[in-house]
Design a protein that fits this description.
165 residues, 6-stranded mixed β-sheet, single chain, Rossmann fold, 25% strand, globular, alpha/beta
Amino acid sequence: MDKRILITYGTVAGSTEEVARTIGEEMQNAGALVEIKPVEDVKSVEGYDGLVVGSAVRMFHLLGKTRRFLRKHKKALENLPLAFFVVCLTMGEETPENIERAKGYAKPMLGVKDPVSLGLFGGCIDHEKLTDFFGKSMKSVPEQDHRDWDKIRAWGRDTHAQMFD
């Protein structure tokens, strides 16, 4: 029987949702039944065989709504195969220092449970989508997109295999 996977994410401007959907496509291609939802729309994680939780990073921290999701569902998450990913500008350049820094952003995730996999992906700045206060403060930063779609797709495939093989 196909495994049911929930991919849930915290995003502000949509970049992390795009990453979540790409991961979901790869897991679906691998035979999973995938549901993709923002963290604020998840009422329960019951009925899923595995879970992927992703978040954007703002001001060097996971989004508050992602941290709230983790706290709310901590007990249930302990019993599921779990993978995490973060999307941040820090990973625009994949150096050992930046990898360590990005892992630091993931600490609230890693405090829930050791995941089968932790994805660290570059983020992007699209001024049209950054309309909140933080986004307005980023207007002086040039638009950029550091998401490596091949790496994201490979992570989705590999993570599916690690969850269920």
